[in-house]
Amino acid sequence: EMFFRKLQRMKKPHLQIQIKGQDKYLEQETKIIKMIEQAIEAPSYDRFPLSPSQALKCARMLYYSLKNLDEPSKYPKTPYTARTILTFDAGNRAEWSLIRYLRKAKNFSVIYEQKPMVIASTKHFDIQGTCDLVLDVKGTKMLVDIKSINQEGFKNTDLPRIAHYAQVQLYLNSDWSKSQDIKYGAILYYNKNMCQ
After folding, report:
1. How far apart are CA 115 and CA 141, in angstroms?
2. Bridging pattern class, strands 140-149 and 184-191
3. C-beta of residue 45 within 8 angstroms of C-beta of residue 64
């Protein structure tokens, strides 16, 4: 009984020290997160606002994107949060990682990677996109779009997503794809939670 009383007395200060330590750790963690957020640069909005990744977005959103181009002060864009920028960055790093491994594959070769292309052109502007990959599979060219998604999205049986399908169709029907005789496309989904 005396042993348990001593043990109870010892636990209290130990727990208080642990809590203070956690507070200090959380404080440091918060400082580090703030420093990272300050270092993150938002992507520029220099290019024309419509792109293949916006295929099938609502007309109202597309309208405001175009109005922002003419009157940025009247229709300001909401800047990306640090978390959104980091999410885009993680997706880009996953794409480059997959491309690096696909370059080593034996059954096909990588012809193009991260290829900027013009989807449609007018007198005043170009609608541009970036094709992730073009593979040569036994003499047949195949355009591949890589999408990194979370576990929940990966389990979804409705893949490919219709917007992703539309995006690949825009790439395939571009003048550049026609000039390269690319008739086939694929969407490669990468589960970023499970690395599969």
Report:
1. 14
2. parallel
3. no
The reported pLDDT for the residue numbered 35 is 77
Listed in sequence order, the residues at least 6 apart from 123 whose beta carbon sits closer than 8 Å to its beta carbon are none
Which residues lie below 8 Å from residue 109, measured CB to CB, with a gap of 6+?
135, 136
What residues have CB less than 8 Å from 196, skipping those under 6 apart?
A: 154, 190
**Interval 108-148: pLDDT, tens:** 899 998 888 888 887 878 888 888 999 999 999 999 999 88
Angstrom distances, CA of residue 145 to CA of 27, 44, 115, 156, 193: 41, 23, 11, 18, 19
CA gap 60, 72 in Å, rounded: 16
**Given a cut of 50, is residue 6 above it in pLDDT?**
no
Instruction: Tell me how far apart the alpha carbons of residues 96 and 98 are, in angstroms, rounded to a whole number.
Output: 5
The predicted pLDDT at position 3 comes to: 43
What is the side-by-side order of every strand in the sheet holding 109-121? 109-121, 126-137, 140-149, 184-191
- Helices H / strands E in the chain, number of each: 6, 4
Q: In this structure, how many other beta carbons lie within 10 angstroms of the beta carbon of residue 119?
A: 20
Arithmetic mean of pLDDT, 183-194 = 88
C-beta neighbour count of 36 within 10 angstroms? 11
Overall pTM > 0.85: no
